[in-house]
Amino acid sequence: MKKRSLWKTLILFAVLGIISLFFLIPLIWVVASALRPASPLYEYANPLTWKSFIPTQPTLENFVHIFVNLNFGRALMNSLFVSVSTIVLTVLVSSMAGFALAKFEFRGKAALFTIVLITFMVPFESIVIPLYILIKQLHIDNTYWALILPGVANGLAIFLFRQFFSEVPSEIMEAARIDGASWFRIYWRIVLPLSVPAIVTVIVMVFMFQWNSLFWPLVATHSSRFEVVQVAIAAHRSTENTSWANLFSSAIAGSLPPVILFLFLQKYFVRGISGTGLKG
């Protein structure tokens, strides 16, 4: 039985290894291409050999070019600023809304929660026009506020906090109320510190959404001063010409911050998903 189980495990790992190659090979090729000089980029593209995936003369000139000559660092800083600002505001607003939906009873609570659920089921593209008209009337178009505010009241984040707060024992809050604590003090000092997994889940979710945002920044801003990462990456490709070396190097540089964030927070992220009613 042990021998048969060992063979099943080996076969499973072999199958999974073969499947993973279909995802890893294009990524390895992109990394290798970014580390080659721009001129011989396709020298080893066809036919594929080991040189296609291991550059013979690796260089960082493509990365130096996008940061020195194309000001890609500005786009990175813009995306970091927009993402971090959105995260801070979203955690505050969504956690307070989730706390109210989880622990308070008031008229229209069920209808309000239904609206919250609907908001993250509607495709963002369907509300772009009225959203742009709104920020235009508020005179915040082509500003950082136009990139930050639409992502703050996040329906999915409210849902996650509501689910997590529902699991917090009400007896803790009742004891705090008897001791004279206000509802805000209970939320800030007791409930919020207990919700670290939910907060981390929202941080990762909001960061990925803002970092990968392309369509809305193109609509809401038109100045290079507010250019974000995805817009900067897309700018390397046009109908007339595509700078593949710049595209590959900027795509790799732009993917590092979310990868690093997820590697540091993945333990809490998984714990937050398993504790907010999203278990499979």
Structure notes:
This protein has 280 residues and is mostly helical. It folds into two domains: 58 residues, no CATH class; 205 residues, MetI-like (MetI-like fold). The protein contains 14 helices and no strands. The protein is globular. 27% of the residues are buried. The model has no long low-confidence stretch (mean pLDDT 86).
In short:
Its main location: membrane. With 280 residues, the protein is an all-alpha fold.
Strand content: under 5%
Unreliably modeled segments: none
- The CATH topology label of the largest domain is MetI-like fold
What string gives the helices and strands in order? HHHHHHHHHHHHHH
Second rung of CATH, namely the architecture of the largest domain: Orthogonal Bundle
Shape call: globular
Radius of gyration: 24 Å
For the record, the CATH class of the largest domain is Mainly Alpha
Q: Compute the number of structural domains.
A: 2
According to CATH, the homologous superfamily of the largest domain is MetI-like
Sheet having the most strands: none
Secondary structure tally: strands: 0
Output the number of helix runs: 14
Q: Helicity range of the residues?
A: 55-70%
Instruction: Kindly report the average pLDDT value.
Output: 86
Overall SS class: mainly alpha
Distance between the termini: 31 Å
